[in-house]
Specification:
With 388 residues, this protein is α/β, with parallel strands linked by helices. It is built from 14 helices and 14 strands. It folds into two domains: 2-201 and 376-385, Rossmann fold, CATH 3.40.50; 219-374, 3-Layer(aba) Sandwich (Rossmann fold), CATH 3.40.50. Helices cover 38% and strands 18% of the residues. The strands form two sheets. It has an eight-stranded mixed beta sheet with strand order 3-4-2-1-5-6-7-8, sandwiched between helices. It has a six-stranded parallel beta sheet with strand order 11-10-9-12-13-14, with helices on both faces. Helix 2 runs parallel beside helix 3, helix 3 packs across helix 5 and helix 7 (233-239) packs parallel to helix 8 (256-265).
């Protein structure tokens, strides 16, 4: 068995695209004759607090689904204060350094980026002859931070950009989740080997509905996922026209309390917040809905929301509201409809032209088949294994 270490900031029982992506990769490699170990912090995302089952522990080691998971101490935080967030990342970096000193590290190491500083720690301390460092880039920081207005151009941005370039130069192979990420990397290190590794889903699909429900009712639109600043769900609630739809929301994050407060005081009666569900529970629940929305408050270069691939597998038509490469994927594979990012009039106009017959079982089945054909996790993994 070929040993491989995966270093990541997120891993289940934490939720979200990043945790799911790395878990699928780890378990997929383990099922293909790799001896996989993972180094990750004690679970704390997205609450910024260590999960109850792990409180009081400095580190843990456990084998789950054929993967050895090393959970390391860190100072958890989801604070808006950038210095507190920096200290949190540095605390995990220090734990990683101790892990590198006290643990036999395999030749092949896959490092998740962002966070940039954690990836930098790995690249700096694991640079050795004959070691293969694979950098898995899921978002383009610091550029994404600039577009999200989380950081501004200046000294901090320049330092982060230098760290980003250092990470690219010291990787032997770079995995990018979008064509835009690959193009960005190639613009900095044109000689570097890159591989497009999409965030394709890997789960057992619940039984799809067997009959359409075309009763006289509103279209049931759903959003499920992180309720963060980038997704802009609070702003969507404020601007959405519910004359033709019900809008249902699942998830947790920074905006959860603001959304709850808004719904308590708004005159709109057809927006519902249902809280957080486990991934399996959520998949079953999503089958009750006619349409899903995948929004980004601002178009983020390099970002392709994983929900596009996950919802297609569930046969759920998508209204995409984020621009960029995600929009191109929706159009190319006919996964639903697109509204110009940030244009709420265009969004509402699109919704008001949809009807229940347009969202029937035939379309749902077609989306499921498209997912199986074009977004196959195992086929992609088999291609990756050839070069790892």
């Amino acid at each position: 068995m070929k040993p491989v270490l995966i270093i990541t900031h997120y891993y289940p029982p934490e939720t979200g695209a990043a945790a799911n992506r790395i878990c699928h990769l780890a378990e997929g490699l383990a099922q293909n004759d790799f001896k996989v170990s993972v180094a990750t912090p004690l679970p704390n995302y997205p609450t910024g607090k260590i999960f109850e089952a792990y409180k009081g522990k400095n580190n843990t080691k456990k084998v789950e689904n054929g993967v050895e998971i090393n959970r390391l101490w860190m100072y958890p935080s989801n604070s808006k204060n950038k210095f507190v967030r920096l200290f949190s990342m540095l605390s995990y970096s220090m734990s990683l350094i101790w892990f590198f000193i006290t643990t036999k590290i395999p030749i092949t190491v896959i490092v998740q980026s962002p966070p940039l500083i954690v990836a930098f720690t790995c690249m700096l301390f694991l640079r050795k002859k004959n070691r293969k460092l694979i950098l898995n880039v899921s978002d383009l920081w610091p550029l994404a931070g600039l577009e999200l207005q989380a950081i501004k151009k200046g000294l901090v941005y320049t330092i982060l950009e230098k760290i980003e370039h250092y990470n690219y130069r010291n990787a032997d192979l770079i995995l990018g989740q979008s064509e835009e990420i690959i193009q960005h990397v190639k613009g900095i290190v044109p000689e570097k080997a890159c591989f497009l590794y999409r965030n394709f889903p890997f789960f057992k699909v619940p039984a799809l509905p067997k009959e359409s429900n075309h009763l006289e009712r509103k279209i049931k639109l759903v959003y499920a996922g992180l309720l963060g600043v980038a997704q802009g769900i609070l702003k969507l609630c404020e601007h959405i026209d519910t004359s033709n739809i019900e809008f249902h929301i699942y998830g947790t994050g920074q905006e959860a309390s603001s959304i709850t407060m808004y719904l308590k005081h708004t005159a709109k009666k057809d927006i519902f917040y249902h809280g957080h569900l486990s991934r399996n529970e959520l998949h079953q629940e999503l089958l009750k809905y006619d349409l899903t929305v995948v929004p980004l408050l601002n178009r983020i270069y390099g970002s392709v929301p994983s929900k596009i691939f996950e919802y297609s597998k569930l046969g759920l038509p998508i209204l995409y509201f984020g621009g960029g490469e995600g929009e191109e994927i929706i159009n190319r594979f006919e996964l639903g409809w697109v509204a110009e990012a940030g244009n709420y009039d265009a969004f509402n106009s699109k919704i008001n032209r949809l009807t229940l017959p347009m969202l029937d079982l035939e379309m749902k089945q077609k989306l499921h088949e498209t997912s199986n054909l074009h977004f196959d996790f195992n086929k992609q993994l088999a291609q990756l294994i050839k070069i790892v």
